[in-house]
């Protein structure tokens, strides 16, 4: 049947969905709201807008043109927020460089993305020095520094960031262009092979921002984001646009606090002194904050946190709730811009016990608007939503990466069957809550059955002596694979509890909580620390390889 198109008026404004449109509301309703950096820099949204114009004029003065790429190596700062907006608003592409990669991996990503200009914090000169001569496309370098006396640069600098802005005019006519134009690119933090580049358009970033706003703004109370919140990211801005929250916070005109380098004492002081009310982070970072000595002096009540990146243990949810923290899970991945689901509770859920609330808060959540999320079997057929039957999570939404940069074959596998394949295993209950039970690569195959490493981590993590835990599968002649729990003990329990005691405790819980019966084969090994990825996630692949040689 033919589709009837809406008649348009030639003189009407088409209104492309461009990142610059996110600035209309804050400049109209909150021009005097504050953006700050480490408590040392403070300015208003009105001044922020002027700095965007100065940055665009300065970059144009360096010869930057639409379609070219500006790479940034900085900690979470007001400067990074300015780049989130000004660079794509010019029609250029923002590359957010993972500063925790090795120098060789950073070299690969800069050359692969064909970066033209590099804005670099002087703290990363040691990473730049050994690779500078092998950069194939970067032609201009701009210094970023918080110190008056920066160390000597390993390259010729075109300018210094603040001096460059000071010398530029504040007015810049940001143009209209196709909303499908590429706005950003960054590289996934895989543990094998070269990093893979993902990319997102203006349209995708605007739609992701609007959906995130509608999800968090329509929550009845728990986890709700509103215009009087004070926002501070605790997820690196180089990683999936800090989960898209800087775009959201700016669109809503929130007071924003940027912390710089993540140090637990400085983060905690900013939470206290700036009265931060909304953040997001991975479980390991929250654990680091709550176990820091300074945390005992801080009132966390009123602090809302979205937890993502890896599964949140129920024990951690309970510990945070006891401190007055309103935390809940969000789910996504680098390829999904990233947020797909959020585990906001209904008002009635808040009458549940803390233990029952922790179960819901630790689930992966329900889909945001415009997200078509399914759990499917190997034939791409839907599995029943009974909270038990599991399958792979596949998804469609308007903001998913269309592929990997210059890697069409990998993109075909990612989008097989017309849905993006997450490589996560999970189930959906009758209320629509998704629960990720494991990564396909991390599930433990014992006696022909799947045992969830995440479920076992929840069990082991309930022991009072456990500081951190990761469960991996190791080869076993009889069972195929057997689960091994790598446990970091709390300092007070070091030498006072045995691996055997942790195993017995876990075996008892496994039998009473419905975890796979093969979970009782769990072995326990105490370790001084867990291996982490560059963005703070637990690196199970690396720990498996260290024990089985690949």
Helix-and-strand structural type? alpha/beta
Overall radius of gyration? 24 Å
Strand content: 15-25%
State the CATH topology of the largest domain. Rossmann fold
**Count of the separate structural domains:** 3
Global geometry: globular
Report the uncertain regions: none
Major β-sheet profile: 7 strands, mixed
Mean of all residue-level pLDDT scores: 93
Distance between the termini: 55 Å
Q: What's the level 1 CATH class of the largest domain?
A: Alpha Beta
Please characterize this protein's 3D structure.
The protein is built from 16 helices and 25 strands. It has 550 residues and is of the alpha/beta class. The protein has three domains: 31-199, ANL, N-terminal domain (Rossmann fold, 3-Layer(aba) Sandwich); 201-386 and 423-439, ANL, N-terminal domain (Rossmann fold, 3-Layer(aba) Sandwich), CATH 3.40.50; 444-548, ANL, C-terminal domain (GMP Synthetase, Chain A, domain 3, 2-Layer Sandwich), CATH 3.30.300. Strands 7-6-5-3-4-8-9 form a seven-stranded mixed sheet. A hairpin with a 3-residue loop joins strand 1 (34-37) and strand 2. It is globular, with a radius of gyration of 24 Å. It starts with 23 loop residues before the first helix and ends with a helix. The mean pLDDT is 93.
